[in-house]
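Cross-check.
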Amino acid sequence: MVPLDNATTSMINADTEMTEKNNCQHETTQERRIDGRESVRRIINGWWQEMLCCALSIVSLIVLTIVLRRFDNQPLPQWPSGITLNTVLAFIATLCRAMLLVPVSEGLAQAKWTWFKKKPRPLKDFEAFDKASRGLGGSLELLARTKGWLVGIIAAVLLTTTIATSTITQFAITYPSRIVESGEKGIAMAWRLDERWGINDPDYAVMNEPAIVRGIKQGVHSLVRDETPFREPKCAAANCAWPQFNTLALCHKVTNVTHLVEADLDFYHGRENITLPNGIYTLPGRGHTQFSGAPTFFVSEGPAISHKYLRNVSVFDYFAIYWDGAMKTPRAVEISIHWCIDTYEAELVDNILKMNKTASHVPNLQIQNLEYQSLSIPGNDEEVYTVGSSSFRMIGSNLNESLSGKSVYRSAERFFGTSGSDMLVQATKEIAQSDAKGNSTLEYLGMETAWWIAVNGMASNVASSLTNTFLPDDPNVDGVSLQRVVYVKVGWEWLALLSIQVGLSILLLICVIIETAKARVEVIKGSTAQVLFAISAEEKARMEHGVDESNTPERDHRRQTHVELCKVGNNWILKG
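Predicted model, tokenized:
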């Protein structure tokens, strides 16, 4: 026999392929046509399980949304056996994912039949459809082989993204914390000197003079650099808050009046004196020698000079004079302890108290009689505070006794005084020594600055200490206790992937149903029996004799891995 050349062989193969294709198409034309009602019935009968799974995936997504909406911005649910919201989320999301994968896998199984219905395909495509439902690599291979087919694209997207569904869905829940009111009474307490103090207790200072003296002494003996705070609120919890409140209080005002001092420091002629225009007078202290001076600290009550505008609310006006024994002009300051109305804001956060004085007003005098005096915030005549008239006099008298005095400091002598001026000496010396850090020269030069600090600090502490003394024993400002609560915060955007997957699975099923109907292919899906008998006996014989395809590695591999099922009764067994 004369061998055929390549051209002749190609023509014969082409004719054979055309004949085989026509035979297949001829068989297709013999299929009976199905009316519309029959088509619907066949679709329902063939796809009811996949439709049910699509419905269940939608229901799962709706249930998941309802559960998350129920607990969004709510405290953590307390469920038995340690079940958490994340556990429920994972269960529902897994169920939803399992349901949506059923139409995807079955749709792909059916799609391979419609894929081969369109035109002749290599058997390798059949294997690609089979691998697609098994993992990421198979789905990407199917996408490459179907080359833009909508069913292949949707299937690849679904099979690729479902790997991350569980992890991404868990991100939908976070657990931040916030502060909320506990609702319990009597846990957060604060104090204020209310509007009716002078009416309800007009003789408070008279009846509680020892407490007044103690309050003054406590202020005098406190460290001048440590400001005495307003009485701190009490809270039995780690977090509390109080409403903004006003209180009657004592404040202080300090003004430098050194420019008003007249001094003659001539020890030699015996004319030494230090004088202020309001009649305040003292002699400068003498040193160890006849004509030398020594640091002098003087405190005395006196008529107001710069603070005349405080005369209606002032409790005590006094002056402090300091001379270091050498300066030409002694230093002088005017101090007034007066009534004021302070505004406070307080909160306790993680056991740390934050209390701020947001405003302080010098009140206006409204009414003055023998029993009490009425004071109001400027511009607000409705909020009127009262002070017993006798309290004015008694407080001023005790302040004068505790603060007034004259002290001369000589370095060679030990100093143990306890009067107001004596405490001023000790406070000034303590500050100067602390700032000088052992340097005697710096200590001497820093005495004046230290005196200014001591005068202001002592006045502030005395006013604050007296205010705390006036406060009632029982709290009269109710706050609220707060507790830190962990709550559920839902990030709805993290459910977008699952929602898209549910939608795509439904779209994939619809596309496969349409493709199946258009191609007039029976609903076969992943039937194993149909796969076994899909190739006719003639084609199998040709494949077994090696005339099915060109000499390819796939054919060699099939020959090496040849398997055969043999029937035994009504069952089958693998031969070999």
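Residues 188-484 form one domain. Residues 228 and 464 are 6 Å apart (CA to CA). Passed to J.P. for a second look.
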